[in-house]
Amino acid sequence: MFPPLKRAASKALRSMPLWFWERVVPKDVIGLGYHIVSDEDLPHQVYYSYKNARQFENDVVYAKRRAVGYDEVARHRLGSQPLPRSRILFTFDDGFAECFHVIRPILRKHSVPGVFFVTTDFLDDRRRLFETSASLCLREVARLDPERAAHLVAALSLDRPLQAGRLASNRTLALRRLRTVRLPPLATPAQLELALWLLGFDEDGTEEIERACALFGVDLAAYARTRPLFMSSAQVRQLVAEGFTIGSHGLTHLPVHRMGRERMEQEIVASCSLVRDLSGQKRVPFAFPYGGSEIKRSVIAEILRRHEFIDLVFDTAGLRCDEPFIINRVWADPPPAQGEAGSNLSFLLRSEWAHRSAWRRKPPAEIPLGAAPVR
Ligand SMILES: [Zn+2]
Predict the structure, then answer these.
(1) Cα 187 to ligand 1 centre (Å)
(2) Domains (range + CATH), the chain
(3) Which of 88, 277, 311, 315 has the CB geometry, 3.0–4.6 Å to 285, for a possible disulfide?
(4) Nearest 5 degrees, angle CA 321-CA 327-CA 333?
(5) Per-residue DSSP letters for 247-282?
(6) What is the pTM of this model?
(7) How far away, in angstroms, is 132 Cα from ligand 1 center?
(8) How far, in Å, is the centroid of ligand 1 from the Cα of 129?
(9) CA of 21 to the centre of ligand 1 (A)
(10) Cα 143 to middle of ligand 1, angstroms
């Protein structure tokens, strides 16, 4: 389509009211995905914006009449229990401490259920999330005096063509992240260069980020002693006791889709087993760190067949049609535009429904009919 026409069509689709989409392209379940809710400007999470407590409560109030618990969704998707249309399932990834202190009280106040996907290595602050380390390094970059910043740019050879042995960073990735990151103000071009270097590290760039932490004097263990970054095992057990569902978000939060077939299965199964032991749940859902859209559904189906205790699998493709054992989710982290009152969920859902992938009633059958695990 001619680009201006395409833009106009896309705008028109995004402005269609929600009731239109619900009638024309109905969904059984709408998964909402959050990471953090906080009233604070958190220095350890600058990779994306997030809602404050009031904004999140507005979402909960907006959705609560349609809110549904995980078990009902699983019984519907994997069994035969009927479910009214457009049920909303709240989910939270990574297991940040704010899940317990900020999100949980709001959900309880409104009697709304939810699923908390925890990365098992992060529980009790045993290990760190890549973005947490990178965020604190970015904060240090913003604090550097201009001379020191220029010295580091030269020492890291960031002002010269890439040389063998230098820790490479992906410029395209950095520029893409630069559009969404909540970067502290940077005073000099050298600071921007250092920030771009950090933003260009892949999520599995453990060596790079450790070197950067040493370089910028970031001591994550010391930082975590001043405030817990992630939930404790005891808090997770309390969430279960209060009726919430716990899912796995991997052992390490490394991108599962970049692992080989065997390692991917080990990561999924081992982390789900740990969550099963910790929570006492018979069945455990799994959510892909960084999404799993690139993973063949037949591969996931095979893993689920072999390990029956792993339940539904959660992905990140908005309202995309998928296999019955996959729940895609709409990212609900972005706060409403400045000056906008109330929940922005209607806007976020309409934007997702406007994608063509949300309309395909029957995705290409990659696995034989009936091959999905039966609850
Ligand atoms: Zn995550």
Answers:
(1) 31
(2) 3-39+67-128+229-358 (3.20.20.370), 130-226 (no CATH)
(3) 311
(4) 105
(5) EE--SS---GGGS-HHHHHHHHHHHHHHHHHHH--S
(6) 0.90
(7) 11
(8) 9
(9) 29
(10) 28
